[in-house]
């Protein structure tokens, strides 16, 4: 509903409506609203509208272009809801100030017409008064020549500006920053006050005619003034008729004057009859009834005439038929649907849709079927897309669609941030991507990046840690150190390194003795301090474990002291005991035969060559790897003490030491020494050691004497590497390299080891193998000569097999070249070797043709093949009860099923390996052809399932039965070596009756 109000307020007797509900009084009209639940009232008035009501229960929205007043509150728009009026947009007070509830009230200071609240500071004083900031009151100007409403523009003579007041010029020099001389003269005025200028040593406010000035000079004056002697003088002072000039020239004159050609002065222009002076001073032809000319045109007529827009002054009634008011300057108001064209001073017809207008583009009212919007008449059809309900039988819109708001009679689109709005700047509901603030503004939801939940139309309901809710639905960061807070400075928990005290978070560095924080509390303090229960300070506390530690340290020190004393005592006792073992004797009391050594020293050995022998056995040859002790004596025939010390060069073939190693022999005394020698290999050694001696005399010096010795060892398996002669390399494998060589007069095979990474463990295993091989005494076991145990020279020496291994023959000879008799003999000799091992409780664990060496190809010889390679052999007594598959032992092709299945195994595993070897030797072919078994695990799978190889024509019935008994899947059912030897002899006898 649109209401036109003609008066702000008129006397209206409404007492009869006091008890009426939903009756509202607007201006001097009363309206009944009881027939509708919601109504929007737009009030049109050129002044503020007064609004009265008694009881409103309906939803009513009110808006007025120039505002309305209700209950002493000035509003532009507001609404009634549930009987309560809410002002949505307050209007500023025309005078006085706003109270906290939005009403206008008079200012406390009677001289103040506008203030900040009814008790606030004055914002505008009454005319001719100025506001005093010290007393907070409005006072009269003093010593001010001219002023505006709130500012003095010019002081009277003898006074200058200070703030907004005029003070005595002597006081004005208080604006001086630099003074010199007596009496003082100002050299520089206050640079912060741009209105000051230094004139003859006095700081004063520049004259209002000055436009531009420096610190002490006037640079530019207003129009009509020029600079002379640092003062702005009136142009007419020395040049009558001048309107614009400089110091020596004139630029513009009064209309009855013109500028002389040299530009110096204005010259009076006397026009002839029939002409008049124009505004620029020139003469123009006279126009009847015209009193003002410009460029030959009349711009103003006499009082009883009006300018017709051309060149004449005519009577007002003849100017324009549409002219409603004519003046000497022309028509100033048009009637009907015409408007005044300023340039032509004529009335022209408005736009066809305009009922009245200001010009062609600005309408004041519209014809029927059109409505006014921003001085433009629009067709009612344009409201189809924006208006929900048009004015019945009228022009314009009554209710706009969602997303549009009422703007006069038009509907304008809401701001892009609004979903629904009442005015351009008043959103009722925000769009889908915005939320509504407490002030009614719509902001993007993405602007609240610190919300812990999804931002809705209502804003954020829960903020992230470190932020708190502000304005009801927005988030603001807590103060530094706060992990969570309910207000800006009210923390509920703190960040790391901060402690919560009351409602504030403080750095733990500010808490004396605190070193660490946890859960907003001080959790750790420096030594001898502990955190309080609330974790806000550190208190001194005895540390029990420190006291305990001190006690323990004292006990440890005591124990260590006792141990040290005992250690020293033991050392002393040992020293005395060792000293007691040293045999010192006087030379005069011995019958030993000494020989001269050097510098008064004599020596006695048991033989002249100093041959080391075993005194226990009384033999010249000594055992290898056994320590031998020999005695010798050194005497001191000088008159001074002599210090004796023994040294020897390192030799890998023996160990040597002395007891005592160092001693001081008194004069004419002798000392008995023990020489300990351990040969490490077979050798006939000649070597020496050094006797260092020092004679305690004035010219004493350290001297040395070389002492030669020799020894001869017994023959053992510990060989001297220098006794081996390598002739040629026979082969190489992962274990090492095999050479053919000589040892003494025998041709031997030298097996050099390589890849010795763990010397200690490997040497222990190597010594075990050598010890085992040294015990073998069998014609069917390769003879073992010995081994070298020196690092980087480790090797084994066995007898040399001239014809290589059975495997070599399998590779190099066809089956037709090797008769069955020799094949059976190879198997028989190998079995005899295995039988010898088993009878001595030893498993070979790697029986295969590679490890059967051939020493003869004549089957009639006693021995053709011998068993070798005992690197995998183990004493059966060591592990008979718990023997499982050991990684790296044996060859998968020849392994028994129990070994492949990592089960416990015993001697029958060697019998199985013999069976596979027999199958290969007798059949003279690979047992597991590569065409059929491409991968090793296929062999293991085949054997593990209890499968056996297929015999060919080379295998007789007896041979097949024997092999079947050897490779039975159950180890306990396999026959023993003696039974195998017996059966092989039977088979062999068929080829050789004499065996």
TrEMBL record:
Q: Which UniProt keywords apply?
A: ATP-binding, Disulfide bond, Kinase, Membrane, Nucleotide-binding, Transferase, Transmembrane, Transmembrane helix
Segments forming domain Protein kinase: 724-988
Q: What S-S linkages are listed for this chain? A: 463-478
Start and end residues of the TNFR-Cys repeats are 462-522
Domain TNFR-Cys span(s) in chain numbering:
462-522
Q: Where would you find the membrane-spanning parts of this chain?
A: 542-570
Q: Which residues bind ATP?
A: 752
Recorded superkingdom = Eukaryota
> What's an example of a GO molecular-function annotation for this chain?
non-membrane spanning protein tyrosine kinase activity
Q: What is its EC number?
A: 2.7.10.2
Q: Kindly give the InterPro entries that the UniProt entry links to this protein.
A: Furin_repeat, Growth_fac_rcpt_cys_sf, Kinase-like_dom_sf, Prot_kinase_dom, Protein_kinase_ATP_BS, Ser/Thr_kinase_AS, TKL_Ser/Thr_kinase, TNFR/NGFR_Cys_rich_reg
Its recorded name reads Protein serine/threonine kinase, putative
